[in-house]
Amino acid sequence: MRFASLIVELIRARPLLVFWLVVCAQALLWVLVPTLFYASPPGAVAMVLAYGREYQVGTDLGPPLAFWLADIAYRAAGGHIIGVYVLAQLCFIVTFYALYQLARSLVGPQYAVVAVLLTSTVTAFAGSGVEFGPLVLARPLWALVLWHGWQVIGQHRRAAWFALSIEIGLLLLTTVAAPALLVLPLVFALANARCRRALLSLDTAFALLVIAVLVLPYGIWLLRADQFALPPLPSTAQLGDRALLGLQLFGGLLVSLAGIGLLVVLNIGRFAPKHHDAPMIARPPLDPLARQFVYVFALVPPIVATIAAAVYGLGHVVGGAGVAVLLSGLAVMTVIGNVLNLHRQRLLRSAWAALIAAPAVAVVFAAVVQPWLSRTEVPTSLPANEIARFFGESFERRTGKPLPAVAGDPQLASLIALAPSRPHLFLDAAPERTPWVTRDDFERNGGVVVWRAADTAGKPPDDIAKRFPGIVPELPRAFERMISGRQPLLRIGWAIVRPKQPQ
C-alpha cells in the first residue's frame, strides 16, 4: 500500500503553505540564535554600521546601499542590533520567495517547494546569513534578477521589465561584483534567438534609463574617486598560492552543499526496502530553454566566481557563496526528471531537520561550550554594549560632551561606534578609508583611542603611540566576556583626546 505522510500531502496540495512555514521558521531561528547567544555583532556588522552611519555615496568598501539599510534598520530598532538581524532574515525570505517563484515557473509549484527545501540546507544561508552586508543583500537582488529575467527572456512578459531594471540598479548599488554577475544573463540572452527577441524592444531602452538614474550618483563618486581599477593580477610566484586559494574556496562551496548531497543519497531508490511503494510528486514537462537556464545559472556562477576570487586573491567567492549556489536545489530538481519518488520519508524528514538545526547548534556550542575548552577568543562573546557604554560615558563625564569619534584598534573602535551617541569611526592607520573624519577633526573635536592591553600598565602599542604622540594612557578597563570559561579578561587600554577650546 502506498503511504504518503502529511508533509508529502501538503507539498502536493498546498506547496505555497509549506514554503512559508519552512522559510519563516528558519528566518525566526536565525533571529533568535544571534539575539540570545551573540554579545557583539558577528563578522563585519559593526563596521557596516559604522560606515552606514555616515551615509556616504560610496566608500572603499563598495556601493552604499547595504550600509544605508543597515543603519536604517539599527535606528528603527531603537539602537538595538536585532534590527539588523531582522533585516538579514528579510533578505533570506525575499531570496527564497524569488527562488520559489522562479522554480514554480520552470518546474511547477510542487517541485519548486522541494527545491526550496533542498536549498535551505545549504550552510551559506544559515549562520553567515546573519552577517548583514553587501554579500547578504546581493542574494535577494540576484534572485529577483533571475526570476524577472526569466520572465523577460523566457516568457516574454513585458511587465517584468520595470521590476528587472530596478533590481539591476539596486544590485549595482550593493556590490562591486554586480557588473560581473550581470554579464552572465546578458550573454545567455544574446546567445539564444528566442531570448534576443525580448531584448529588441523599447522596454530595453527604458530599463537602461531607469538603471542609469539609479546608479548615477555612485557612478559620479567612482569617477571622482578613481575607483575603476581592478586589483593587480598575481605574479608568477603567487600562482601556486592563488591556485590553492581557489581550491579552498571551491571546496568550501562543495561542503556547503553537503546537505543536498546527503538528502539525494538517502532518497536513492536502489537502497529502499523491497516491496516499498514510494509516494510520488510529478511536474509538467520542462521547456528545453528552461533546462538550459537552470544549468547555466547553477553551474557557471560558482566556477567563474571561484576562479575570479583566486585570481584577485579575495577571501570569498565573487558575489558571495549565497549568490554562487542559489540555484543548486533547483538544478537537482531539474536533473531528477518528471516524477520524484520519495523513499524513506521519515528518514528524509529527520535528516532535513538535522541539517537545518546543525548550524544553529554549532553557533550555540561555540558561544557556550568552546570558552570552556579553549583559550581562543570567540569574537561574538565580546560585551559590545558594555564596552560602548563605558567609553561613551567616560568621555562625556570628562568633557561634558558626547563622544564624537573613536580611533585605535579597528575591531574595538567599531564596537564603541555603536554607543548611544553614535561616534564617528576614525581608522587612524588608514585615514583615507574614513574621509568623514580627518586627523585634524579628531584632534580638534576630541575622541577616544583604544587598544588591547597586554598587562595592567596599559601602554599603547608603538604604532598607536606614533600616530598619537601626546596621549596619556588611562588605567586599562577590564571586561568579562559573555561566558569567560578559560579565557582571560578582556583588557582595553585607552586614552582620551580632549577637544580643543575655541580661540
UniProtKB/TrEMBL annotation:
Domain Glycosyltransferase RgtA/B/C/D-like: 63-221
Domain of life of the source: Bacteria
Transmembrane domains' residue ranges: 16-39, 72-99, 111-130, 168-191, 198-223, 243-272, 293-314, 320-340, 352-373
Naturally occurring in which organism (per UniProt): Rhodopseudomonas thermotolerans
Keyword Membrane: yes
Pfam families assigned to the protein according to its UniProt record, in alphabetical order: PMT_2 (PF13231)
GO MF: glycosyltransferase activity
Name of the protein described by the UniProt record: Dolichyl-phosphate-mannose-protein mannosyltransferase
Keyword tags: Glycosyltransferase, Membrane, Transferase, Transmembrane, Transmembrane helix
